[in-house]
UniProtKB/TrEMBL annotation:
<dbReference type="GO" id="GO:0010181">
    <property type="term" value="F:FMN binding"/>
</dbReference>
<comment type="similarity">
    <text>In the N-terminal section; belongs to the zinc metallo-hydrolase group 3 family.</text>
</comment>
<dbReference type="InterPro" id="IPR001279">
    <property type="entry name" value="Metallo-B-lactamas"/>
</dbReference>
<dbReference type="InterPro" id="IPR029039">
    <property type="entry name" value="Flavoprotein-like_sf"/>
</dbReference>
<dbReference type="InterPro" id="IPR036866">
    <property type="entry name" value="RibonucZ/Hydroxyglut_hydro"/>
</dbReference>
<dbReference type="Pfam" id="PF19583">
    <property type="entry name" value="ODP"/>
</dbReference>
<dbReference type="Pfam" id="PF00258">
    <property type="entry name" value="Flavodoxin_1"/>
</dbReference>
<dbReference type="GO" id="GO:0016651">
    <property type="term" value="F:oxidoreductase activity, acting on NAD(P)H"/>
</dbReference>
<dbReference type="InterPro" id="IPR008254">
    <property type="entry name" value="Flavodoxin/NO_synth"/>
</dbReference>
<dbReference type="GO" id="GO:0046872">
    <property type="term" value="F:metal ion binding"/>
</dbReference>
<protein>
    <submittedName>
        <fullName>Flavorubredoxin</fullName>
    </submittedName>
</protein>
<feature type="domain" description="Flavodoxin-like">
    <location>
        <begin position="250"/>
        <end position="388"/>
    </location>
</feature>
<dbReference type="InterPro" id="IPR045761">
    <property type="entry name" value="ODP_dom"/>
</dbReference>
<dbReference type="GO" id="GO:0009055">
    <property type="term" value="F:electron transfer activity"/>
</dbReference>
<dbReference type="InterPro" id="IPR016440">
    <property type="entry name" value="Rubredoxin-O_OxRdtase"/>
</dbReference>
Length: 393
């Protein structure tokens, strides 16, 4: 339970959630951390806190450095409860602390915690606060990923505390990106982006415009490891994700009751591969929708298959579509497919949702009655190849 010094006098004092496997609808096989940062200067400052049940772990780390009652500024970059959950305890232990937050942050924290005695210091975007030898500069980044979101920058230290931006759900003994390596950190940053930040690409780009003008050598987010070596690699990748830029590859997502839809999926895979397109296959009974989002993040073509059940699509497919509709991936090519017995509404409904999302649909949806025969599968394979050629050309 040791604090970790990032820069002289600046410490990571967060909590490690080793057992977390589910985070508001998102599976987290590696667990996560809630990162809080303590800055020891003339004014002692804590930036963000941890989920309520890790409060004692955070306090234990803080107490190894200072007496928590000495905290002068409690900065809340983001209202969400995984970062604000220990605010009530800190504000109780540090009665003289001012709670520094954005105007939306103040509204959210008041509404959520209903504490009348908190001494707020509301900061505008661009406002600076001297804490002694260092300055805290606050930049609002609305909708990255809540209206209240704010980042804190310390120019004297070239340190950015961007809260959820650049986060990853990783519980580990390591605190820095280079200790885990690009493969793991990139994968978890991608999953995080795809499931949390994806709808807000335009806002991310605006935030990146501001952030990339700052002199930075360390980015310490509110989840996962701290970026110090891989910043030049992750920033362009964030730009790519924010711009919905994809690679010429395909993702096939499907469910099936009696295997016919899977046979169609396999024929589409063959056709796409004939055109030289790499294909990822995701069966909705064995892959969680939040894991599939990581594949979707950079796939140009998304093919979604369902049989018809009771005049509609399967509930697993419907849940997936509800999830991606909310996350709003753009600039994709879509194709619906499926199998039916008599009415055939399932694949048609999927095609309707794909169109509503604004994806390109150059080819008609595929719907095969009962089990596809060899000739039908050949036709599907040709459709897959045609789609593949559209992606690669
Ligand atoms: C419980 C149940 C309900 C079904 N309801 C419909 C329906 O409303 N309309 C329809 O066209 N087919 C319906 N079907 C038939 C399936 O869509 C058909 O068997 C299809 O080939 C199944 O595809 P799969 O092998 O990919 O599961 C239903 C099948 C089952 C088992």
């Amino acid at each position: 339970m040791k604090p970790v010094e990032l820069k002289p006098g600046i410490y990571w004092v967060g909590g490690i959630d080793w057992n977390l496997r589910y985070f508001h609808g998102y599976v987290t096989p590696r667990g996560t951390t809630y990162n809080a940062y303590l800055i020891v200067d003339e004014k002692i400052t804590l930036v963000d806190t941890v989920k309520h049940y890790l409060c004692d772990e955070m306090l234990d780390r803080i107490k190894q450095i200072i007496d928590p009652s000495k905290i002068d500024y409690m900065v809340s970059n983001h209202v969400e409860m995984d970062h604000s959950g220990s605010l009530p305890k800190i504000m109780e232990l540090a009665p003289n602390a001012q709670l520094v937050t954005s105007p939306q942050g103040q509204k959210g924290l008041k509404r959520y915690y209903k504490k009348d005695n908190w001494n707020f210091k509301v900061v505008n975007s661009g406002e600076e606060l001297s804490i002694g030898s260092r300055t805290l500069k606050f930049v609002h980044v609305p909708m990255v990923h809540w209206p209240d979101s704010m980042v804190t920058y310390i120019p004297e230290e070239k340190l950015l505390l961007p809260n959820d931006a650049f986060g990853q759900h990783i519980a580990s003994a390591e605190r820095f990106d280079d200790q885990l390596g690009w493969e793991i950190v990139h994968e978890e940053a991608a999953t995080y982006y795809a499931n949390i930040v994806l709808p807000y690409g335009d806002n991310v780009n605006k935030a990146l415009d501001v952030v990339t003008r700052l002199d930075i050598d360390m980015v310490a987010p509110s989840h996962g490891v701290i970026w110090r070596s891989l910043i030049p690699k992750i920033v362009p990748v964030y730009r790519k994700w924010a711009g919905n830029e994809t690679d010429p590859k395909a993702l096939i997502v499907y469910d099936t009751m009696w295997d016919s839809t899977r046979r169609v999926a396999l024929a589409l895979q063959d056709g796409l591969e004939d055109a030289g397109v790499p294909v990822t296959m995701r069966f909705l009974q064995t892959n969680h929708i939040s894991e599939i989002m990581t594949d979707l993040l950079t796939a140009r073509a998304i093919l979604i298959g369902t049989p018809t059940l009771n005049n509609g699509m399967l509930p697993t497919v419907s849940a997936f579509l509800t999830y991606i509709r909310g996350l709003r991936p753009k600039k994709r090519i879509g194709l619906a497919f499926g199998s039916y017995g008599w009415g055939g509404q399932g694949a048609k409904e999927v095609a309707g949702v794909i169109k509503d999302m604004g994806w390109e649909t150059p080819l008609d949806f595929i719907n095969i009655q009962y089990r596809p025969d060899g000739q039908e599968l050949q036709g599907v394979r040709e459709t897959g190849k045609k789609l593949g050629e559209m992606i690669t050309n």
